[in-house]
Amino acid sequence: MEYTKCWLEYPRIRSEEGRTLTLQNLAEGSVGQSAEKELALGLRGLYGIGLTEGGPEAAVTLKTDGALPDGGYVLHAAKGSVTVRGGGAGVLYGVFALLRHLQTAWCGWDELTLEEEKRPSNDLRLLNHWDNLEGDIERGYSGRSFFFRDNQILVGQRTVDYARMAASCGVNGVVLNNVNVRAAAVELISDRYYAPLRRIQEILAAYGIRMYLSVNFAAPISLGGLGTADPLDGSVQSWWREKADEIWRNLPGLGGFLVKADSEGQPGPHSYGRDQADGANMLADAIAPHGGRVIWRCFVYNCQQDWRDRVTDRARAGFDNFMPLDGKFRDNVTLQIKNGPMDFQVREPVSPLFGGLKHTNRILEVQIAQEYTGQQRHVCYLIPWFKEILETDLMCREGGSRVSSLIAGPNQGMAAVANTGDDPNWTGHDLAAANLYGFGRLSYDTSLTPEAIAREWLRQTYGRSPEVEETLLKILLSSWHTYEKYNAPLGIGWMVVPETHYGPSVDGYEYSRWGTYHRADRNGLGVDRTARGTGYCGQYAPALAAIYADLETCPEELVLFFHHLPYTYMLKSGVTVIQHIYDTHFEGASEAEAFLRMVEGLEGKLPEDVYRRMHARFVHQARHAREWCDVINSYFLRLSGIQDDKGRPIYA
Ligand code: GCW
Predict the structure, then answer these.
(1) Does 244 contact ligand 1 (Cβ within 6 A)?
(2) What is the pTM of this model?
(3) 593 alpha carbon to ligand 1 midpoint, in Å?
(4) Tens digits of per-residue pLDDT, 124-159?
(5) With a 6 A CB cut-off, is 139 part of the ligand 1 pocket?
(6) Which of 139, 349, 439, 549 is most buried when burial is the number of CB atoms within 10 A of its CB?
(7) Domain final residue, candidates 62, 92, 117
(8) Residue whose CA is closest, atom 13 of ligand 1?
(9) 264 is catalytic
(10) Residue 35 covered by a domain
(11) For residues 149-183, b (16+ Cβ closer than 10 Å) or e, as one string?
């Protein structure tokens, strides 16, 4: 199927057809060759300029510089002469940066004047694909997998273009398969799949990307025929050691394993009375001789809770399970922690584990697959949200403890659950590609603003049209807040249809086993997570715990996450909780309607197929946002009996 190149289309800036530039390429290895290829592609597209080989006097020099850290680069451009020096994949990043600057400045080749030095903010910048070997994608909203189909591995031009896109925004690691490792996926670490996996690995490596695999903790049983997967059992340990030797013999340079253990039915060390460190360290020891890393997820909680039980609080689970193990993990283990304590809701506080852990490597896991944020049918540019998370100060160290600094440093970083599939535009909604691009850019450089990232992306994707750029920028930058407004109110989350996680269902999860409750009754709603309630607040450093626990200082957007409040409680914004619910839901729905009108103004200004795809999604979003508004408002009017003070239509 034909597909777009997203932000790598290289629309023509001006024609310099027939011109050639000399290039001296001193960049090493397959990454050096990719850097040259990308430069050639970019220049041909943007200007029609060709490249020929040149010597020391060449117009463009690409060079590996061992003094720079991996992924760092130095870029000079003046009067048509350009030098890019980089450490490891840094040369390639420097070339992509050059092409990006030419497009953001929208200038001729000779006109760019630039001195730029960059080094990555984060060591690990990973995409996690939840792709299954059968070809479907768990929580995938952009078609089917382009890695797997019918238990076969797909390798082709799309793999190459994927690697190009990922590298162009700074991604340096990719986990190919779903963390729920079932059926044939268990056998990814066997002869059945090594040959095609190696081909994918080589394609990724040429773009500075390490491949990782999700593995099943019980593989010694299902794959090895042992009677146990107990991490302290000698036969299990030697099975994994031998398996690791075999894997790295076939896939040299593999980054390591991603593991979801003791979570939502996946096996893990708890089944054997062992803790999470016992499990992670056993695998880490097996793969350490090969330079492998274990990325161990902290999404461990009881998913068989009784809704009648008001003491157990799912939000506490990550911290309660992992905090006592701080300092017990091997160096080649990194814990991967979801941004919030629950599960990728439109708003949550930052997980207290980021601040709590002092002697353990950490990765911040976010989700660009919009599972709870509109499933790539609603527009929801998530970079402002991720930026807020990175800037949150957990008040756990003297001299600043923002999340961005807590995850910086060796063997740490960021991971995103990917939002790609085999749709012609890769991400379902054309505007969802801004999340893919934006995640990479932000993880590479956490100092970038969401607006700067959106502008870069728009300019590279749609060329230079001020009207298109300003309109889509406005939509992107307000989209997360708009989505939040018509969703569950004030940080409480979860008012979605169970299973699909799409569309409003206020009580969908209220009497279920998932530990996700809003506790609404006729007087009020919210969960008391202060010391009087579940005590979750106490997992933060004392200064921050005090801020959340006090209604005077608790950030309003999270107030129902931390407190149970009466509908009549007066918020600092000057309206009651119930009036806030009504107001924001009406606002959210009319903002979604306004997005549709704005997009309709772009008819004829965007390529026709893009416009058609986008328009259909905005029509749906406007209608669906209205549905959200009406369901939520009607539910709370019926329950509380309190009228909207503006008298708008609510279906009592
Ligand atoms: O939010 C839940 C999703 C599951 C997912 C799980 C996880 C891969 O609904 O589909 O499983 O999170 O993060 O492991």
Answers:
(1) no
(2) 0.98
(3) 31
(4) 999 999 999 999 999 999 999 999 999 999 999 999
(5) yes
(6) 439
(7) 117
(8) 299
(9) yes
(10) yes
(11) beeebbbeeebbbbbbbbbbbbbbbbbbbbbbbee
